[in-house]
TrEMBL record:
<dbReference type="InterPro" id="IPR018062">
    <property type="entry name" value="HTH_AraC-typ_CS"/>
</dbReference>
<feature type="domain" description="HTH araC/xylS-type">
    <location>
        <begin position="205"/>
        <end position="303"/>
    </location>
</feature>
<dbReference type="Pfam" id="PF06719">
    <property type="entry name" value="AraC_N"/>
</dbReference>
<protein>
    <submittedName>
        <fullName>AraC family transcriptional regulator</fullName>
    </submittedName>
</protein>
<dbReference type="InterPro" id="IPR018060">
    <property type="entry name" value="HTH_AraC"/>
</dbReference>
<keyword id="KW-0238">DNA-binding</keyword>
<dbReference type="InterPro" id="IPR020449">
    <property type="entry name" value="Tscrpt_reg_AraC-type_HTH"/>
</dbReference>
<dbReference type="InterPro" id="IPR050204">
    <property type="entry name" value="AraC_XylS_family_regulators"/>
</dbReference>
<keyword id="KW-0805">Transcription regulation</keyword>
<keyword id="KW-0804">Transcription</keyword>
<dbReference type="InterPro" id="IPR009057">
    <property type="entry name" value="Homeodomain-like_sf"/>
</dbReference>
<dbReference type="InterPro" id="IPR009594">
    <property type="entry name" value="Tscrpt_reg_HTH_AraC_N"/>
</dbReference>
<dbReference type="Pfam" id="PF12833">
    <property type="entry name" value="HTH_18"/>
</dbReference>
Length: 306
């Protein structure tokens, strides 16, 4: 499932100063929030914000060119972290008045990043001492949003439009939460997609590898804690703190991904998929699938097969 922040009302063409990356700015003490809209096809458009920036696509498609990286398509439900003083070069291959692009960009002060990272490393260290908390603007800078990160971004947008006296106080707390959610999302990217590379150097990568290899079997938190060389309580707490979800939630998400893969096969039946994906109760499977994907397994299968 793609987690896209709630859309922001598009401006009318006559309200725009330019049809390419028209910018609306909301400035608070804790951060600067920008909404960019593009209503015309364009290529090789440079953009530099002068700060570390978290950008999130809300609508349409871009092609991003960042220094030292291969170009990539940038779609709704995805985010990109751009380094301080780094210039993005952007293509808008499909933008027009009927299909505009819209992107959110949160400029984050360097001091806020440093204070948040220092606080986490001092009071809530990660499981591996050789991998402290940090904001990655290079290797894991492009990723799918998590529901937690999306929710925080939506609150930032609401605060930007708020006229209350305490909005700057709330904004300070919320931007710190956004940074934590952002680093958790990047930690997921590192482990969930590159677990084999880190299986011998990161205890949670070994846990992820075990879950993937035994997905259709009964998996206990006790066994996972043993693999991580932690007590059950410590493992559960640190796993959620570092990755933003519990071990049980991760197992469910992996099983649902496997279920979706199986459902795309026209020869499989929903009941068979339930057990082949590691669930042992069809009613529970139906409930979880609807909760996470927004549709029943049967409806997903019909949509997937057209």
């Amino acid at each position: 499932m793609t987690y896209v922040p709630a859309p922001i009302a598009l401006r009318q063409p006559e309200q725009l100063t330019t049809l390419v990356e028209n910018r609306t700015v909301y400035t608070l003490e804790a951060f600067e929030l920008n909404v960019f809209e593009t209503h015309r096809t364009a290529h090789q458009v440079p953009l530099s914000m002068g700060h570390v920036v978290l950008t999130t696509m809300l609508q349409g498609k871009k092609v991003m060119h960042l220094p030292g990286q291969a170009s990539f398509e940038y779609l709704p439900g995805e985010s990109v972290v751009v380094g301080e003083n780094e210039t993005m070069v952007i293509d808008f291959p499909e933008a027009d008045e009927q299909h505009p692009t819209q992107c959110l960009a949160v400029a984050i002060p360097t001091d806020t990043i440093r204070q948040t990272v220092d606080l986490l490393n001092e009071e809530q260290p990660r499981a591996e001492a050789h991998l402290p908390w940090h904001l990655d603007t290079l290797e894991h800078a492009h990723f799918q949003n998590t529901p937690e990160l999306t929710g925080t971004l939506e609150r930032l947008v609401q605060l930007s439009r708020d006229t209350g006296r305490v909005k700057d106080v709330l904004a300070g707390f919320t931007i710190q939460e956004m940074l934590v959610r952002l680093m958790q999302t990047q930690a997921r990217q590192l482990l969930f997609h590159n677990y084999q590379q880190h299986a011998t150097s990161h205890r949670f990568a070994a846990v992820v590898q075990y879950i993937k290899q035994h997905l259709t079997e009964q998996i206990t938190v006790e066994k996972l804690a043993e693999l991580a060389c932690m007590s059950k309580a410590t493992f559960f707490r640190v796993f959620k703190r570092e990755l933003g979800l519990t071990p049980v939630e991760y197992i469910i998400q992996e099983r649902l991904q496997e279920a979706k893969r199986l459902l795309r096969n026209p020869l499989t039946k929903v009941a068979d998929v339930c057990f082949r994906a590691g669930f042992n109760n069809t009613a529970y499977f139906q409930k979880l699938f609807k909760q996470y994907e927004g549709v029943t397994p049967g409806a997903y299968k019909r949509q997937a097969l057209g």
